[in-house]
Amino acid sequence: MDSKDKYIIIGGGPSGLSGAKNLKEMGIPFDAYEASSDLGGLWNINNEHSTVYESAHLISSKRMTEFADFPMKDEVADYPHHSELFQYFKDYAAHFGIDKHYIFNTRIEKVEKENEHWRVWTDKGESHLYKGVIIANGCLSHPNRPNIPGKFKGELLHSNVYKNPSIFEGKKVLVIGAGNSGCDIIVDAVHRAKRVDMSVRRGYHFVPKYIFGKPADTVGGVIKLPRFLKQKIDKWLLNTFFVINPQRLGFPEPDHKLYESHPIVNTLVLYHLGHGDIRIQKDVVSFDGNTVHFKDGFSDEYDMVLYATGYKLNYPFIDKKHLNWNEEKSPQLYLNIFTPQHNNLFVLGMVEATGLGWEGRNKQAILVAKYIKEMEANSEKSKKMTSLFQKGIPDLKGGFKYMDVDRMAYYVHKDTYLKAIEKHMKTLA
């Protein structure tokens, strides 16, 4: 079939795979491209753009993360290792027969509108015309690097290139940032480094991986409480019964309420703080040779500084105007999926929410596939759906005031988001 009669999916991670599965099931022709030599996205540690490291595991439990129609095997750990997840995605693709649709070792360099189609160029020097484009290249590969004055003469790297703790052997190490990756990495460093410090700008809420002997994200939820009351009660329960209060160990008080940012699912860092293996430092204000100066006036020398400062959305192959992305921290998309100006350009996976899992991304893909099917039939249902894209972006935050940082720009409240997805599916039913 000529490419102009197909859709293209960009990316072979969980969102790309769910997109491929649902297009296949709807009988919608497509090609799928993956820049690396295999599937799995960032969970394929051999992918040059993978940001996982040797010790990386899921921070949500397998039952809250898996695809509903392809459960993880019982023998897989509650919090699977990245190698188990890589195999899971390969098994998923083989089970649904979508691995055959992928073109590997081929990077998409450019995507441009050409009349009603999209012209796509690859790094092989080829160009193809496609009926529509589904972008699913992930959110966690383009490093966010802070602009700190001065020059550091030691080793300076971002967590996106970190793979194993051997790089810390015998060194004085400073990790900047205390997100989930930063806490994982600093726990790795404790066992190898001469000294380990962590620089933090703000306080964080910590959640254990197990509560009452069960994965923490599977506990609770039976009684629905008002948002403000749930935030207060859950914070009190966590800091009273399940984790040591982080402020006792040097973390500042959080400047946000529980659930207004992604919590830190790592209590090992608190364990090591309690044993004096890690020191907490203030925000970094400047570098001077091997000396790092902190906001409170303290300074110290380090051999290595590692930025664990997160990632930025990055769709370098397409003009931002097509994604309705101007000065905002993220594209302004309807349901985080649909572009208001194009009915054949979609983004899958540009969504974060506590508890959403890959099934939440799969529901995005189902909605896109249903919409494409109805649109190609020129149905009144698709016209009604298209008209909604022009009416502004609905509030998907569920009343929460999420932090004004890059990663939270596309954060949603799980229940609010899933209800919105289901409502729009009924529009197409």
| Strands in their spatial order, largest beta sheet | 3-2-1-7-20
Distance between the termini: 29 Å
Q: Please give the CATH architecture of the largest domain.
A: 3-Layer(bba) Sandwich
Number of helices: 9
State the order of secondary-structure elements, H for helix, E for strand: EHEHHEEEEEEEEHEEEHHEEEEEEEHHH
Detail the poorly predicted runs.
none
Instruction: Output the radius of gyration.
Output: 22 Å
Assign a percent range to the helix content. 25-40%
Structural class: alpha/beta
Q: Count of DSSP E strands?
A: 20
Structural account:
This protein is an alpha/beta fold and 429 residues long. It folds into two domains: 3-142 and 311-428, FAD/NAD(P)-binding domain; 145-307, FAD/NAD(P)-binding domain (3-Layer(bba) Sandwich), CATH 3.50.50.60. Helix content is 25%, strand content 17%. The chain has nine helices and 20 strands. It has helices at residues 14-25, 62-65, 82-95, 180-190, 227-242, 268-274, 357-376, 380-389, 414-428; strands spanning 7-10, 30-33, 102-103, 108-114, 117-122, 127-130, 132-135, 142-143, 155-158, 172-176, 195-199, 210-211, 214-215, 279-281, 284-288, 291-294, 299-301, 304-307, 311-312, 345-347. The strands form six sheets. Strands 3-2-1-7-20 form a five-stranded parallel β-sheet, covered by helices on one side. A five-stranded parallel β-sheet has the order 9-18-10-11-14, with helices on one face. Helix 1 packs parallel to helix 7, helix 7 packs across helix 8 (380-389) and helix 7 (357-376) packs parallel to helix 9 (414-428). The longest helix has 20 residues, at 357-376. It is globular and about 65 Å long. The two termini are 29 Å apart. The relative contact order is 0.15.
